[in-house]
Amino acid sequence: MSDINRMDNPVCPVSLEEATLADIEVLECPYPTYQFLRDNAPIFQDPRTGMFVVTRYEDQRRIAMDYENFSNFRPSNDHANLTGAARLAYERFLEKGWVPGESLAARDDPEHKQMRSIFDQAFRPKRIKDMDHQVEQLSYELMDSFIDDGVCEVVAQYAVPLPLIIICRQMGADMDDVWQIKEWTDAWIKGIGFGISDEEKLKYTDLEIQAQHYFQAIFEQLRKQPNDTLLSDLVNLEVPGWGRTLNDNELHAEMMQDTFVGGSETTTNAISAGIMLLDRDRATWDKLRSDPERYLKTFVDEVVRLESPAQAMSRTAKNDVEIGGVKIPKGAQVDLRYAAGNRDPEQFENPDNIDLERKNAGSHLGFSTGTHYCLGAPLARRELYWAFKAFIDKIEDFRLTPGKNNLRHLPNYSLRILKELHIEFERKPA
Ligand code: HEM
């Protein structure tokens, strides 16, 4: 495995009995396990979760586009059968807030397609284009906020605020509330984290309910007085075929899952991952800044491919299916490990490294494929472009601050979230 993936003592399984993804240390550096599974059991039922983990690119594409046999339905939406912490959280939502409805990402066509049409309208190319200047300006403003210091913690000072402020503006949130919203999204992520107790689940649910009350006031205002934000469209556009707009429960699911977390957290993680990779791969850093216009687009895709902020998405088998000789029974959970497919040597030559000349860089599954292809990908790509462009334009050279980085990630089964990234740098002369 190449140098840019280095980590002290990553878990490297040597037999299928040892292989699992349900282990915090494996998730910290999952790439050796992904490689082992791709080579030895590309469709592997993890004994610790019961899920069928799919690690090869072609199998993932096939499943993601097989709508007859695989559904995006999430067991957490099957309210009648919830147990344990999930049931406690559900009851808390019923009592004090809104039980989140089925989000766009959790629906199947035709309902999904109908709902997606209002999202396509809200995220229309002209709106993303109109936002581009804001994204550019904010990237440079954020760089300027720490450029005189010679040091910075990339995650908190750059990677978090850029997409968060952009989405807050589009969601009609008050700019004074940005960091409050961040606390809520952090809580939401911890609430779906690894091995949390019932008490913690309820604590995070209460924080989500606080966020719901905050957003509810915005929905009500936008219903009375629509404006030109993205959220105004989501609140007021009628879903074709439904004869109605989205209800409060559905809107609340969108706010947390698909916009603030799905949209902002993932982009944050791609920005920090990109800067971490540039530190590890100095040849790429030199080449990128030699001609940013030429290489940035590919670099953005290479970061999303290599570090895949959304490492995996799940599907539920609708029928008994057999793939690659493995029988997947109806009702089974299937774990599409996009991050493993994104390093599949059958699809990408020299897959563990950044290649700024890669011809098929855009064919990664970091934004998925098919009907659920990431709706926010055009926005995310522009945010990443400007984040790296402003970084290159302002900084002469940089390195990780000695003694301050452990490069650990939050324990999460599906999202890759770098906790902190401390760098020191020399600024370019003004
Ligand atoms: C680097 C940043 C991002 C990554 C890696 C990412 C990743 C993904 C992935 C993998 C999916 C597919 C889910 C599946 O297969 O079931 C998805 C869907 C989605 N993403 Fe993103 N995303 C990013 C940025 C954004 C942004 C900026 C937004 C919006 C502000 C957004 C909104 C959505 C929505 C609404 C869906 C659901 C689409 C559907 O089911 O039709 N994402 N994203």
Shape: globular
Q: What fraction, in percent, of the residue positions are helical? A: 40-55%
Model regions low in confidence, pLDDT < 50 over at least 5 residues: none
Question: What is the CATH topology classification name?
Answer: Cytochrome p450
**The top level CATH class name:** Mainly Alpha
Secondary-structure element order, N to C: HHEEHEHHHEHHHHHHHHEEEEHHEE
Structural class designation: alpha+beta
Largest sheet: 5 strands, mixed
Mean pLDDT: 94
The gyration radius over C-alpha positions equals 21 Å
Strand fraction: 5-15%
Instruction: Kindly report how far apart the N and C termini lie.
Output: 40 Å
Strand order of the largest sheet: 1-2-8-5-3
Number of strands: 10
CATH superfamily: Cytochrome P450
Q: Quickly give the CATH architecture.
A: Orthogonal Bundle
Helix count equals 16
Integer tally of domains: 1
Ions, cofactors and other bound molecules: protoporphyrin IX containing FE
